[in-house]
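Think of the structure tokens as a kind of shorthand, similar to the way a musician reads notation: each symbol stands for something richer, in this case the local conformation of the backbone. In the example below we present two proteins back to back. Begin with the first one, reading the sequence and then the tokens, and try to describe in your own words what changes along the chain.
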Amino acid sequence: MTKETRLLTMDQFDDMIELSQFAFQYEIPAVKLAESRERFEREETDRWGIYIDGKLAAQLAILDLFTYIGDKRFAMGGIAGVSTWPEFRRQGLVAELLHHSLEKMKEKGQTLSFLHPFSIGFYRKFGWEVYTDLKTYRIDVSQLPARTPYNGTIKRVEQSYELLNPIYNTYAKQVNGALDRSVAWWNYRIASRKKGQTCVFFDSAGEAQGYVIYEVKNRELFVHELIDLTEEARRALWSFLGQHDSMIDRLEIKVATDDCLAYLLNNPRIKQEIEPYFMARIVDAEAFLNEYPFEAGKEETLLLDIQDEHAAWNNGRFAVRIAADGTANAERISGETNKESIRTGIGSLAAVLTGYKRPTELLRYGLIQGDSRQVEQLERRIPVRTTFLPDFF
């Protein structure tokens, strides 16, 4: 048996598509193949596969993406398309590809990695951890927010990177874990997944302050994306959606977990569902900590003992010196020290630094260890921000 890990190119396009269609149970119509080939060629993505005896057995893709943490932009490797033919499953091939991808992401300076898991437990074993949830509202038409007058105008537009991305990007910097979307992302990912109508709210000064992308079918209104930068924009967009009351029975929308629409309704007893969504992993702990935007405060040093059995470069003790302005300098240290450290797995550290969980919460459940005063010290330096990803890959 011969086994080889390869960087896949367009020469292997047919192999990749065949496995993807089987694994994810979809079919690309012949008329769409050229479009798919173009997207594969144009997207900044490294695709890796393991060939056994000349046949593609397993594959994954590493998308070159960027995300915001504390309004700071980080290079991120998005893992997608992880798939294996059934006859090659449970032979450790995916584990090999994941280890390989960690090495490649580190080489490219991608300090973070996100993925959408088929099994949270499976990817936890390799150091990924849930970093964001999605809240879904299903609202009967009788429970929609009351329509209210507003200044400004709402205009129906074509999806446009130039018009929509400045609004989106301003919002993305306000949460942790949203993507910095490229032109290609809008053209290929948003356009294909978020179809329907696009409307923009302009305030009385003519400034674009929000937009909604939505679709109506079978008397249901599906909001694919609603971004508002001001309370005026939020009210205007919801009033606009309420104008569809005669043609729908219900509305569905996915929002960040801190969204408080229900509280603002006259009848807040709407259907709400919260579920884990994407997972995050710190690829290079030292590099990530050196760039991390800690809260301002007194100058201090924290010791982190990090356990990472799948990325040896992260495994060990690090001194993190945090300056008064929140900038940090992290470096690996060796030898014993009398100072108490905080002991954490790489997954729990990702949950903390993305803002998904607070350090004292994880201490309570034994997911990190250390003196409570040290953990509280770390907690004071972690900004409180909502995690949200209004995308999928």
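Once you have a description of the first chain, move to the second and do the same.
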Amino acid sequence: MTVTHHVRVYRSDEELPRTEQLAWKIAEVAVDPVAVEPAVIDMIINRVIDNASVAAASLTRGPIVAARAQALAHPVSTGGDGASVFGIDGTADASARTSPEWAAWANGVAVRELDYHDTFLAAEYSHPGDNIPPILAVAQHVGADGRALVRGIATGYEIQMDLVRAICLHKHKIDHVAHIGPSAAAGIGTLLGLDAETISQAVAQGLHTTTATRQSRKGEISTWKAHAPAFAGKMAVEAVDRAMRGQTSPSPIYEGEDGVIAWLLDGPDAAYEVPLPAPGEAKRAILDSYTKEHSAEYQAQAWIDLARKLHGERPELADPARIAKIVLHTSHHTHYVIGSGANDPQKYDPTASRETLDHSIPYIFAVALQDGGWHHVDSYTPERAGRPDTVALWHKVTTAEDAEWTRRYHSEDPDEKAFGGRVEIELADGTTLVDEIAVADAHPLGARPFARDNYIAKFRLLAEPVLAPAEIERFLELVQRLPELTPAEVRELNIVALPGVIDLAAAPKGLF
């Protein structure tokens, strides 16, 4: 039975024992030796495959090239054997490995760059797969086996998603990666078998160092969008290291008079109800998350599927001359973050960055309506964004908040929770077309829910241009035995690019 923890701000003259603080409660979940259920293990395998898929597709993109160069500039630290960097064969060559915090950095950027991996949306937004790179990096460094890795990942997902269910960050313009610092620290704590005192200190430090503003997702969105969760994962690794050395952290980090809740979130009179598994309760949160079929912001997934459907049924809708206006009636988040309610002129700018177009539902719907699908590269090219007929159609698309879709977005009933909306297309001849979609086709309740075969197909699609066929098969065979892997095999949980794909010498130079 889940336990709901009442979390409020305490004045400095009020006593709040460490064992009653949220950081400690999170640590108690992390140290619970409860078994990981088979369905959770299967989904963890799916998400490790999913992360490798999107990392493969990102290997030559600018942010990954830079982050990889930074990581490989740092040698393996003395406490272990180091961790691998996506694309580079570090199994036999220690010089191709790096310290775990830098592996978490490089691999975290590779996983997030295309905005193409898993998601969970509740009070806050999240990509819980961001927990995997730092936990895996530490596992490789210390020589943990597959069973320990599975347990660590289950904790990372559980803590991040439970925080996401309860504590809204974006309302206060705090970036959602602030939930990754604590969750990844807790997951690493489980992996290593640390005690609650050590983990609680790491959780507090993980939070303290990862609170930042949401400007990274506003206006002209920069390459930092991909780096932000990687930075949180890197900080989590360093927080655990500090805590293991007996160093303490700001306390109480959530509840303190000058803490996160009092000054960054809902203020000194605020209170949150945070659900966490009870002692002995399995960590099942990952089963409530969902991945992406399309490389775009999650709230765009269902809209791409609806546009794809309309393209097949009414191909004339691709012609802007036939359209008077298109209104997407949707949730508060979709309207104000990726819709016209954001009041970001960049969302209608054909010269905007890929990161900005990824957060423009008017652009995404227009392109998917014209193309009948979505491609992780072709749909974002400057040539595609600048096509005159696309620009004309794009500028006829607006969003509007609909109270019912907002209610469904925040519903705690999984059968009712929805991330889509209703489209009203007014044609030039005066007629109107109305259609709607609640969840993406790949969602567990969608038209074609993702299963293992879909994850494998996604991996093959994205990996084939950059990995040898034998490497694809090697990785898939290995990862599907995840809980049985030896420490040596965990170190092989990496993807190695074809010769010539990665040119380390051509990477940009920096300080390191």
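Compare your description with these statements about the second chain. The chain has a mean pLDDT of 96.
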